[in-house]
Each structure stands twice: as C-alpha cells, then as structure tokens.
Design a protein that fits this description.
Layout (H helix, E strand, L loop, with lengths): L1 H38 L3 E6 L6 H15 L6 E6 L8 H14 L7 E5 H15 L5 E6 L1 H5 L7 E5 L5 H10 L5 E5 L4 H16 L5 E4 L5 H8 L6 E5 L13 H11 L4 E3 L11 E5 L1 H16 L15 E6 H6 L12 E3 L5 H4 L1 H13 L8 H27 L2 E7 L4 E4 L1 H7 L19 H15 L6 E8 L5 E12 L5 E10 L1 H57 L9 H14 L5 E8 L2 H8 L1 H18 L4 E7 L2 E7 L4 H14 L4 E3 L2 E3 L3 E8 L6 H17 L5 E3 L2 H17 L8 E10 L5 E12 L3 E3 L1 H10 L3 H21 L6 E5 L2 H4 L4 H12 L6 E6 H6 L1 H13 L3 E7 L6 H5 L5 E4 L1 H5 L4 H16 L3 E4 L5 H9 L4 E2 L8 E2 H13 L1
Parallel strand pairs: 1-2, 1-3, 3-4, 4-5, 6-7, 6-8, 8-9, 11-12, 23-24, 26-28, 28-29, 29-30, 30-31, 31-32, 32-33
Antiparallel strand pairs: 10-11, 13-14, 13-17, 15-16, 16-17, 18-20, 18-23, 19-20, 21-22, 25-26, 25-33, 25-34, 26-27
C-alpha cells in the first residue's frame, strides 16, 4: 500500500510535465513548419512583352522589382523579355517556348507577373505546360484585353484604363477656348484600337470638340500640320510605332520631334512621354502598374488565392505636368488643376528646407518675450508714425488734386518708386514689369528713349537746373500715353547723389490737340498749294482729253487682245476657245466639226532638264509648227501648259479627220531647233467630233481630253478618236486610282518573290520582289494595270518606297534565319529615279533594315535610260559605287546602241522573256547567244527571264548564261511560303 502510493506519486511527478511538453509541441509544430517553409524563397517569373530598354517596359520592371525586393522574404526574380514589338513572329514565340521549357523545367514557379498583352497571352497558353500552372498577375492590359480572356482561373492583375477624358478636362481647365483635338496614333492593330477608343471617349464628353485623327499622315506631314495650329487646339499623343508609309520610329524620338514642331501643347496618355516633349495630363504610369501588380503577387506568395483578389481598375495614373513645357507655352502653375504633380520644377529653398525654416521661425518666436522691454519705444514710434501718416495724407491729397504721378529713386540702390496714379494710368500691377529695378525703361517708346536719357544725364551731370522731358510710355493695353516728367536730384555734402525725385503728368490729350492743330495747319497749307496748281492742271487736263480718247480706244483693243490671246504663243486662249465653240454650236446645230486636243509628250521632263526658258521657247515653236501645218481652215488655241486645241469646222467626214491627225503626228516628228540644240518631241492627240461626241462645248473638251489620255496610254506619239468605251475606261481608271491611294494604309499590298538560280552551281542566288494588290473592293488587280496608273498619278513614289523597304527587311530576316548570302532584286520606276532624294532614300532604307548594299540589286528598264540618261546615270553610278547592283531589265526590246550601252552604270543584263520563248528558231537562238556574249565581253552578269522548259535551260547552260528565273524554277512565291520553299529545295 505504501509502496503503491510512492510509485503513484512518482508517476504523477513526471507524467504532468510530459503531457505539457506534448501539448506545447502540438501547438508549436505548425508554426515551426510554416516558418521553415517561409524561410525558403519563392520563385517569381516576370514576363515582359517588349524589349529591355523600351522605356515603358523598364518602368514596369522597376516598379515590380522595387516592390518585390522591399518585402521581408525577398523572392527569387526571373525576368524574360519577348521583344514582341520588334519581332512579332511565330519564330520568336517558338524560341521563347523552347527557352522557358529548358530553363524552368526544374525550377517551380510560384507566381507569374506579365506586362502587356503579348506576355499575358503566352502565359495563359503555356503556364500549365511550362510554368507549373502558377497564378498569373497581369499589368498593362486594357479592359477589352481582359474581357477577351476566356479562362480567368487563378488570375488577377491591374487593368490599364485608357481614359483620355480626364486629360481633356484638365486641358479645358487650363485653356477653356480649346475647340480642336488632334489625336496622334499609328495604323497598327493596337494603335487603331487605342485611337478609336480615345476619340470615342472625347466624343462622350459632349463638349463640342472637333476631333482630327492623324494616322493617315507621314511623320513629316504630322510635324508640318502641328507647327501651325491655332491656340484653340491641342495635340493628344497615344502610342506610336510607325507612320502611314510604314516607316518605324522610336517613340521617344518622335515624341520629342513632335513637341519641338508643335505650336500648341502635346498631351500624352503615358508618363514615359515625360521628358520627351509631353506637356502632361492624366498619365498612365508603368511604374505604378508594376508596383500594384507586384503587391498582388506578394499577397499570393503569402497564401492568398489569385481568384479571391479583385482585379485593380484604378490608382495607376498620375496627374502630372512638365514645368519646362508650362514655361515654353507661358502657362502659369496656378492654372493647373489642384493636386497636380509638377516635374522639372526649379529648386525652391523654402519647399526643400521647409522644416528648417519653420524651426528657425519658432526659435525667433522665443525672442518675442523681449519685445515688452521695447513697449515704451513702440509707443514713441506710433506717435511718430501718426504724424508721418498725416503728412503723407496731405502729400497724397495734394498729388491727387494735381493729377500728377510722384516718382522717386534711391540713388544708392537705384530702386524706383511710382505713386498709385502711375499704375492707374498705365494699367499695370505693382512689380508686373519690374519697374522698381528699371523695367519702366522697357515701355518707353523707342523713338523717345534717347531724348529722355539725354535730359536725365544733363541734369545729373549738373548741366541743367532741373530735369524735364516729354516721352511716351506703353500701357498694358498696348496704346502709348504721353507724359511730361519733371524732377530734381538731391546731393550730399560731398556732391554725391542721394535721391532723385519728381512728378509726371499725363499730357496725352494735349499732345493729341497739338498734333491735330499741326495737321490742320499742314492741310491748310497743302490745300492752298493745290488750289494754286489746280488751275494750271485743269487747263492741261483739258488739253489731254482729246489725246486720251485715242489712247483709251487703243488700250481697250489691247486689253481685249490680252483677254482672248495667250501672251507666250500669241495663239487664242481658253476663253477664246469657249466662246468660239459655243458660237459655232449655237449657229450650226446641224453642222459637223472636229476638236483636236494635243499634249506634248514628256514636256515636264524637258522643262526639268533643259530649264523653263527653253521650255517656253519650245511652246512658242510648237504653236508656230501648228500654224505651218494648218490648211487655213483650222482654228488653233493654246489651252494651257503644254496643251493645244484645234477646231476644224465643216469637216467632210471621218477620212478628213484621220488625215489631219496623221499630218499633225508626222509634222511634230521633225526636230525643233532651240539654242543650237535639236529637240525631238511627239504629241498625243485626242479627237472628239461634233455632234457625235457631244453637243456642248464642255462635253466636247472633256471627251477630247479623255481620248488624249487614251493616246498616251497606247504609247504616246499617236492619236485616238473618242468612243463611249473610253468614258467607261476613264471611269474605271479613276476608281482604281481612288482605291490605290489607300492601299498602303489599309495593308492591301503584298510582295511575292521569284527565285533566281545560278546556272553553274544550281544554288539560289536570290529573289526578285514582285508587287501584288488585293483590294477588298476590286479584288486582285493586275500589276500591268495599276502600276501604270500609279506612275501617272505619282503614287508610285510611296508605293515604290514601301516595296523597297519590305523587300530589304524580308532579305535581312532570311539572313537572320541562316540563309545568308541571298540577294534581292527590286524594280524601280523612272518617277522614283527623277526624285532629288532617290539616292538618299535607298541608303536610308538599307541603314534602317540593316541590309548590306551588296545584297541589293535595282532593276531599271532600257526605256528609262533612253528618256532621261543624264539625270539618272549619276544617281545610279553613286549607288553602284556603294556596292548596289544595277540590272538592265528587258534588254533587247528597246533601241539603245552598243556604244550607248557602254555608258550605262549597270552590273547585269536581263534577257527579255520574248527571246527565251523563241530560241527554237535558229535566228532567235543565235540572237540570245549573242546577247550573252555581249554582256560577258562588257564585264556584266547575264540573267535570262521566263525560263520554262528543260530545253531552254540546256541552251542557256551551253551559252554560259549566269543566272535564270522563270516557272521552270518556281512561280512567284508569297512571302510567308518562301522559307518553306527554300528549305524544301535545300533538302532536295
């Protein structure tokens, strides 16, 4: 019993502590486990859509990293850049996929932060496959982008709310007179979406603002337009990557150039435009978005679920303005909305050291206690001040009663004082023009300044007993007022200046009366002299009346001649033609007539190359030639420019019209002698007959003009009779031209590439770029039709530049994919070659695309050289010296001689397809072989076009032709299929 009790007590003595230990371990174990888990750093992947160095991306990255690194348990941050803005291709996505798959297969990702749409789309598509199905926190994505996400599982983030309404309201707060908003955005998919969204938001304000989109203009046109905007306008900059011609430009560079050119403030949507010309506004901040998304990521890392965290929709904007831009447009900080942030503001001692200043003020407050000691003296000062105020009151009443301005200068400090009446007379506020430090001199009339200073100096130097001057001063309203100023200087015992004081009187009315009196005196004197001379003049005028009647009649005849005749050629002009036609139609309703509309072919080229003086001489000679070829029944008119019209009345029939037309074409085939030079020209003639082709003057002229354009299309130097089908053709041509003007902006143009193969090695030498147009309205349009129209209306200039830029870009991308050494051949129009900046345009595109000059070949037709050899050869020679190849296309179809051929700056001859098609004939076979031999003898490469059969290839191999192209090798290949074709040929 005693032993049992002893053991029981012993058991109780150690059992209770054991139970307490077990309970304490059960309580603390989860904490220890959680602490151990929290000790392990988390892995966060930051996936950026764009490249490092792109300011928007760098700001987001800074916000993310600062927030993540500011926490206690800093996670491991992995950063990847998609570079989607510069390389938006499937190959880029595949490379990113492979990199992430290899890099993170053994590194579990706990959270994914994405910036902008491309990164979010990639993460949603591959996070389960590559990134351990980690939660996604997005930023830089607008409401439309988030709304389009189908699966929002394990997803949260920050919506980039593009809302320009607040910026527009801030702009109206600063300048209520704004009526026009010029919105700048590009024609990319995101640019158009953002631009439309911004314009819809501005419209929804219902403030009556006119919205002008700028996406249809080139960079130069945008800068030119904004340079002359009125003060009721602003510019709103969204995003911008390329202009209407497809030219790519860095955002910060374009933003700075736009601000430098603009005559009005340039507001922005994003704060990365700050310090690049952005005036300000309610700006979306990439850094704040990064901080917000990183804060959401930290909450997820700490245990919260992404689906439970609400998507952030606000708090990512800054109401900020650039102080330098405010000063540039002379806008006071006080005009800004309350709470606005200002950057680049000059240093302010008070604002920077406000605490220190207030501390010092507080210290001085302690000294107030000692003021009581001075109470006696204060009372004394009050009495003295009271006496002084009474004295000043007497002085002020006297000054106001005399209607005078009192002025005073402390000669030791040169600080000026003016009484209140001076400010009332001129309308200025005190210190508005820094008048106390001499700023009043700036408003003295320039004609009076010297006289005023002279009077002042004379008195100060002691040469006059008092100072007296009359001069004008400019009021705030801009008008000048006359003042009579008097004063005297006070000197000390040593003769030094102490004070200079006096008064001023407004004598504007007196000066006005004096001026009117002087003018009246002069007018009276002038009237007397005029009356004296009038008697003699009347007599003289009477004697001239008879003589002037004859002169008047001569002048009327001369003016009538000038009104109805061309001054240069002496022929009747357009007005004379209209009256003659209308009179003939009115007087001969049943008559027959023919209207010839002549246009000198290539006259603009003659004007540009030979000068306008010789061009005018040629027009005079052309008019004389028309008169020489006339049979006496024709009426000749100069319609304008290089256009002439011939009216033949009472014609006998169709044969007579044809005879006249052929005579004119042959007659203009004879050369014109101009300053010892022989100039060969031709004319294109359009013919309309009355009444078959029109019964009104305007209708006949229009139809003859249409027929003339048809003659030019058929090769120039010929004539064409008008027919109804021409009107349809003309209308169709106008439709094609209309749709062609928007082809680049609407992304309707594309390039196909036809391979060129080296015969000796069988390797691919390169490709020829061939333009294609797929209009949503017209369908596929043949290059043979729309290129001619593009040349006629000069649309070939932007289209040709687009072709060259995209062909060079395509070739550079081929090199980057491992197909190095491939070259590109691009056809060039004579219109492009005649431009002064053609050479610089080609070199600029090579620099922009990074393509070396030796990989580019320009194709020129033989007819181009024949038309403008001198103007073009120097440009092509310069490009050839840079390493660019020059190919002469369609050789053998023109008329150039071999001696002329030697002068051409070319590197390659291209044999026309017509020779290759007919090599089965012995003569043609010999001719094709001769062309190859001629080319090699001249040190040129020779390329055969249109090779379609094995026999043609065998013949060209025997003649040692260098390169071939044609359907035997391949048809033209769409751009997206070229790489696959090359890979298949290489594998084969």
């Amino acid at each position: 019993m005693g032993v049992g009790r002893f053991h029981l007590k012993g058991l109780q003595s150690w059992l209770v502590p054991l139970i307490l230990c077990v309970m304490l371990w059960a309580f603390l174990y989860p904490t220890f486990t959680a602490s151990a888990e929290e000790a392990l750093p988390k892995n966060v992947l930051v996936l950026h859509s764009y490249q490092k160095g792109f300011e928007w991306t760098d700001e987001q990255s800074t916000g993310i990293e600062e927030t993540l690194k500011g926490t206690g348990n800093v996670p491991l941050i992995y950063t990847e850049y998609m570079d989607w803005k510069r390389y938006p291709s499937q190959e880029n996505l595949q490379q990113l996929y492979n990199r992430l798959k290899f890099k993170y297969q053994n590194s579990p990702i706990d959270a994914i932060i994405t910036t902008d749409d491309a990164a979010l789309s990639f993460a949603l598509k591959y996070r389960q496959e590559l990134l351990h199905d980690a939660p996604i926190i997005f930023s830089g994505v607008n409401e439309r982008g988030v709304a389009s996400i189908r699966d929002k599982h394990n997803l949260t983030g920050v919506i980039e709310q593009i809302n320009s309404s607040q910026t527009i309201q801030m702009a109206l707060h600063i300048n209520p007179l704004i009526r026009k908003v010029y919105v700048v955005f590009d024609n990319s998919e995101s640019g158009l979406s953002t631009g439309q969204m911004v314009m819809d938001q501005i419209t929804s304000l219902h403030r009556g603002l006119e919205i002008i989109p700028m996406n249809r203009f080139s960079i130069e046109q945008i800068k030119q337009n904004v340079s002359s905007l009125s003060s009721d306008s602003i510019v709103l900059m969204t995003t911008y990557y390329s202009d209407s011609t497809g030219r790519i430009i860095e955002f910060d560079r374009f933003a700075s150039e736009l601000a430098d050119s603009s005559s009005v403030p340039v507001y922005h949507l994003y704060d990365f435009g700050l310090n690049h010309g952005a005036f300000g506004g309610s700006l979306i901040s990439g850094k704040i978005q990064g901080q917000t998304s990183a804060s959401l990521a930290l909450r997820i890392l700490q245990g919260e679920h992404a689906d439970e965290l609400p998507i952030v929709t606000d708090g990512t904007k800054r109401n900020v303005f650039d102080y330098n831009e405010l000063r540039h447009f002379d806008i006071s900080v006080n005009k800004l909305p309350k709470g606005s942030e200002i950057i680049n503001k000059p240093f302010s001692f008070y604002e920077t050291y406000k605490t220190l200043v207030l501390s010092i003020i507080a210290a001085f407050a302690v000294l107030v206690t000692f003021i009581f000691i001075l109470l006696f003296y204060v009372q004394l000062v009050k009495r003295m001040r009271s006496n002084l105020e009474k004295s000043n009151e007497r002085f002020s009443l006297a000054a106001y009663g005399s209607d005078a301005v009192i002025w005073d200068v402390d000669m030791s400090t040169m600080i000026y004082y003016f009484s209140d009446s001076w400010y009332e007379l001129l309308g200025y506020e005190r210190d508005e023009i820094n008048e106390s430090h001499g700023g009043w001199r700036d408003i003295v009339h320039p004609e009076d300044a010297e006289q005023q200073e002279k009077a002042r100096s004379q008195h100060l130097e002691g040469r006059s007993s008092y100072y007296y001057a009359e001069y004008r001063m400019r009021s705030k309203s801009g008008e000048y007022k006359w003042f009579q100023a008097r004063g005297k200087v006070l000197r000390n015992a040593a003769g030094g200046y102490v004070r200079f004081a006096g008064s001023m009187m407004d004598v504007t009315d007196r000066k006005g009366y004096e001026s009117k009196l002087q003018m009246s005196y002069q007018e009276l004197e002038s009237t007397y002299e005029e009356l004296t001379a009038l008697q003699d003049e009347l007599l003289e005028q009477y004697n001239k009346v008879v003589e002037n009647q004859e002169l008047l009649q001569t002048s009327e005849e001369k003016y009538r001649y000038l009104a109805y005749n061309d001054i240069l050629s002496g022929l009747p002009n357009r007005l004379s033609l209209s009256e003659e036609l209308e009179n003939f139609i009115e007087e001969h309703p049943d008559g027959q007539a023919a209207l010839f509309f002549l246009d000198i072919d290539n006259f603009k080229y003659i004007n540009d190359t030979m000068g306008h003086t010789l061009g005018d001489q040629l027009l005079v000679k052309a008019g004389e030639r028309l008169l020489e070829l006339s049979d006496g029944r024709c009426l000749h008119f100069r319609f304008g420019g290089d256009e002439f019209v011939i009216l033949i009345k009472d014609i006998d029939g169709y044969s007579e019209v044809v005879f006249c037309a052929e005579s004119l074409v042959q007659g203009f085939g004879e050369p014109f002698e101009l300053n010892d030079s022989s100039v060969h020209i031709s004319v294109s003639i359009g013919i309309a007959r009355y009444p078959e082709n029109g019964t009104r003057a305007g209708e006949l002229l229009k139809n003859a003009d249409i027929a003339m354009y048809k003659a030019k299309e058929e090769g120039k130097g010929t004539y064409v009779m008008y027919g109804e089908e021409m009107q349809r053709h003309f209308d169709e041509r106008m439709i094609v031209e209309h749709h062609l003007r928007n082809a680049i902006a609407n992304n309707e143009l594309s390039l196909h590439y036809q391979p060129l193969v080296d015969i000796g090695s069988g390797d691919i030498w390169g490709f020829e770029a061939l333009l294609r147009w797929n209009s949503p309205v017209l369908g596929f349009v043949s290059p043979l039709s729309f290129i001619t129209i593009a040349e006629d209306c000069r649309l070939i200039v932007p289209i040709g530049e687009w072709v060259l830029r995209n062909a060079c870009r395509f070739t550079k991308e081929l090199h980057a994919q491992g197909y190095e050494g491939y070259r590109i051949s691009v056809n060039i129009s004579v219109i492009q070659l005649m431009l002064d900046d053609f050479t610089e345009m080609v070199l600029t595109i090579l620099r922009e695309t990074g393509l070396a000059p030796e990989y580019l070949e320009l194709e020129i037709t033989e007819s181009i050289f024949m038309e403008s050899f001198e103007a073009i050869s120097s440009k092509l020679e310069s490009l050839k010296q840079k390493g660019i190849g020059i190919a002469l296309d369609d050789f053998g179809t023109g008329y150039s001689s071999l001696s002329y051929l030697k002068q051409l700056p070319i590197t390659t001859l291209k044999i026309d397809k017509s020779f290759i098609d007919s090599i089965d004939a012995p003569n043609n076979m010999s001719l094709a072989s001769s062309i190859v031999t001629i080319g090699h003898d001249m040190g040129l490469n020779v390329t055969a076009e249109g090779v379609e059969t094995q026999d043609q290839l065998a013949f060209l191999e025997r003649t040692n032709c260098d390169k071939i192209q044609g359907y035997f090798i391949s048809r033209p290949i769409p751009e997206k299929e070229v790489v696959a074709w090359v890979a298949a040929r290489t594998a084969g």
